[in-house]
Amino acid sequence: MTTFGLPILYTILLWWFSTGVILYLDGLDRRTFIWSMSGSTVLLGVSLWGLTLSSGDTSAWGAFQAFACGLAIWGWQLVSFYMGYITGPRKVASDANITRRRRFSQAVAACLYHELTVCGSAAVLIVLTWDASNKMGLWTFLLLWGMHQSAKFNIFLGVPNLGEALLPQHLRYLQSFMTKKPMNPLFPVSVTVSTVITLLLAQKAIATDATAFDAAGYTILATLMVLAIAEHWFLVTPIDLNGLWTFGVKTESTDTPTNREITMGDQPSNIVSLCTRQAGGEAGLLPASVAHRSVETQDPQNVTRFKPMTTSESDMGSPTIKYQQYFECAIARLKAENRYRVFADLERDAAAFPVALWRPDDEAEPREVTIWCSNDYLGMGGKAEVVGAAVRAAQRHGAGAGGTRNISGTHHPIVELEAELADLHGKEAALAFTSGWISNLASISTIAGLLPKCLILTDALNHNSMIEGIRRSGCEKQLWRHNDVAHLEELLIAAGQDRAKLIVFESLYSMDGDIAPVAEIARLAKKYNAMTYVDEVHAVGMYGSRGGGICEREGIMDQIDVIEGTLAKGFGTLGGYITASSIIIDAVRSYAPQFIFTTTLPPMVAASACAAVRHLKASSEERTRHQYMAALTKHALRAAGLPILENSSHIVPLMVCDASLCKAASDMLLKRHAIYIQPINYPTVEIGTERLRITPTPRHNEAHLVELVEALVDVWKTLGLPFNEAEIIPLRINKAAEPARCTFSDLKQAAE
After folding, report:
1. Is 371 helix (H, G, I), strand (E, B) or coil?
2. Is there a smaller number of Cβ atoms within 10 Å at the N or the C end of the chain?
3. Looking at residue 572, what DSSP letter applies?
4. Which neighbouring-strand residues pair with 478?
5. Catalytic residues
6. Is there a contact between 461 and 616 (Cβ–Cβ < 8 Å)?
């Protein structure tokens, strides 16, 4: 019993413990990277040293020691991948619309990406044990490697029920490479081969001529194979064993009493799957965009608890789905990931903007706060002539539009608005929508859908509305690297001159504030016979001599086929629009269901937007002051050592790079300093690039700016956020509305 029982027990305990530690580190916040990797690297050194010492030991103890060293080296390899130390985790989900062949090739590439340094580790072990009589460490490493690869390939080849709870974070993205399907042919082959190997190892262990080293070593390897086979079955068995590896500090939630614990290491897809199973339904009931989204979480110390779903039997004996639990789980997931959004109850004051009244939930009296994140970039929403136009239109035409454009909704104010917009961009016609999101969705999907076999070439950082429009079109799409015109040209060449192509991009990207090389894109479109569609949402009103956007500033509006914009940002009202040739506008008007079946903008909104467009065509005062305040804000933040993301636009991204700290900074600014800047987290920006997005307006002044910088410095120090080295860059403002200051101290003195 001791000959075989002790190695079996030793293997199970050591495997369970090491797997738990690895998965615990996998779920930790990236801020633990240094400590996790330092500790695991020290363990690597000790393991290599131990492997060298045991290389000549052919006793049972030598087998135990070499196995432990091999397991530790494999664990270091996994932790290195999980924490991004060697090659960086390849956690990019596969697009749901690609072909199965393409999905397979992407998955293979993703796996190979991870295996490069594993080959290096294996080579080191082979060298260390080349002449050794004890090769247990090497065989342990190679066996784990082979079973690890088998599990990954089974995941993306497809299985009936994926036990997501058992997958570490670095493997969960592979769910998007697979489809749930009847058992793939590799699974029975994997299990059968593994079983045969296990039996051969067991036979070696019990052989009559086996030494103590052979008995212990082969028993350990056979037990490891049994555990690996069990892992394979867990991948296709819908049971929840996530609690098996729940480590860390757990906190009970008083408002959600449950007895099921899910650590922050769990992915959203796990929680959705759990909710689905608990609700008595199938995973397919939830949208793929929800079920397969893989997200790194930020704070593993907080644990959200979920109540198991119970089912009741109806008279027919079928389970009842608890629908509310789906939504409770979805909201709990967002809160657990620090992505739950809390709206501030703000009361805008047209005369006092950017000052507004904030009504806290826990206070009876409202407080004055300064808004530094408004998309009313020029403050046009409160301009007297814009408000006056809305009032006069409401008094004359009433509050509503009366119907869709086909059903009495084509009122005269919206006809006037579309004429002004067409003139603004130098196009034959324009079409107004209820929002910029809808205008992108309707226009891209309709235009591309009407082109035969259209290939959509889209910038990798395009807005969600553009992505949805592309998806709705049903056309093939290819992503080109953000603002990389060389990559765009490669895709255009590959597509060929004869194929219909639509290049879709933004002129100014709202989160990073960088500006697209619009002239070069237009040149490539002409060279390779492609249509162009540009989103000028964050540029119209603010750039160009008449507010036509970046394309007007660059003098290429006539080279762009479709220009899309919004009335809700630079123009300060509501709605979206496109401008193009008459025939393109007519096609969208006639085919886009989002336009046909939607009630049109009310006359008072159209009239106020028209007034804003007309004013900014003639006036540059707002644009000049706006650029001055944007430059001055960046200057002051640099001088204070605050980490802004540099760009050449009016957007000022202040980088926090942590979801929970970003939310904490926003809350502290509001409650302690009466400054409102909402946190920007995933999915708006990538995980690890969380920020405060600051948008100065012409109605901010130097006193506002002094308060902002001092408040941010206080918040940064309180939360322990890193500062940059203070940088003083002389301001160069053409025709600034007021003299620029060259240091923050001078700016503060001037404001006081």
Report:
1. strand
2. N
3. -
4. 457
5. 569
6. no
Query: What is the side-by-side strand order in the sheet with 355-358?
Result: 346-348, 355-358, 367-371, 675-676
465 in Cβ contact with 434 (< 8 Å): no
What is the reported pTM? 0.61
Phi-psi region of 635 (alpha: psi -120 to 50; beta: other; left: phi over 0): alpha
Instruction: Tell me the β-bridge partners of 675.
Output: 370
Interval 602-646: pLDDT, tens: 999 999 999 999 999 999 999 999 999 999 999 999 999 999 999
Residues written for the chain: 752
Q: How far apart are alpha carbons 601 and 588 in whole angstroms? A: 17
Largest CA distance in the chain: 104
Please, what is the average pLDDT of the chain? 80
DSSP 8-state assignment for residue 389: H
d(CA 223, CA 74): 17
Spell out a b/e string for 318-331, using b for 16 or more CB atoms within 10 Å of the CB, else e: eeeebeebbebbee
Distance CA 587, CA 594 (A): 13
Residue type, 727: E
DSSP labels for 302-363? --EEEPPP---B-TTSPBPP-HHHHHHHHHHHHHHTT-------EEE-TTTTTEEEE--TT-
Q: Residue 738: which residues within 8 A CB-CB, separation 6 or more?
A: 628, 702
List, for residues 377-428, the tens digit of each pLDDT value. Answer: 999 999 999 999 999 999 999 999 999 999 988 999 999 999 999 999 999 9
Strand partners for 733: none
How far is it, in rounded angstroms, from Cα 296 to Cα 89?
A: 11
- Kindly report the backbone phi and psi dihedral angles of residue 525, in degrees, each rounded to the nearest multiple of 5, phi listed first: -60, -45
- Are 634 and 741 spatial neighbours (Cβ–Cβ below 8 Å)? no
Q: How far apart are CA 744 and CA 280, in angstroms?
A: 61
d(CA 253, CA 588): 51
- In terms of DSSP bridges, do strands 562-566 and 675-676 run parallel, antiparallel, or are they unpaired? unpaired
Measured CA to CA, the distance from residue 532 to residue 529 in angstroms comes to 10
